Fold this protein.
Amino acid sequence: MEALKNRLLKVARTYYRTVEEVLRNFNKVSSFELLVSTIISQNTSWRNVEKAIANLKSRGLLSIERILGVDVKELEEALRVAGLYKVKALRIRELAGRLKAWGSSLDELISLNMDEARAKLMELPAVGYKTADVLLAFKASAPVIPVDTHIERIAKRLGIVKRGSRYEEVRQALEGFVPHDERGLFHLALIEFGRKICKSRRPACSVCPLRGLCPSRTS
């Protein structure tokens, strides 16, 4: 297992340069925009997320005040490209209302102790483990690896965790062998690896650099 973990980390590092631009983009946006983007990303591609965010920006709808000040139909129209737009519009509207009621900024919240900030974030509408961890990893530099569907699939196929393992088990297993200062890049790299090689359907096992160590390889 140690050989597999070391090899996975080595493979992930080959993607770091590829995903550095994504990391730079995350650094440029506000915490609120990243939070909204992560909610929009549920059940859609990142390309659609970018289109939806561009629509929100063109309408001036990336602030709590503006989101609460317009009819929800305008939010829906901006989010239509990302699918499930009615549900997402309501969630973002409710999220903005909750943040305003708290009376403290999102940046103040995520500057708390990581466990405290994580728990507080997960009180927000549509914010689960992954969404909270994305915000903490990329806006608070927390040493956490957010686990999305690609990362969970890879960890289970490789046998790093059991098939029935839940989010926290996957996260902790991966964090056990990834240096603190690499965890954000590792998250982005594994997503890229999952999109290109360890795909949900028809994984490219024949060209996978982990095929010799993977118990789930198909060729």
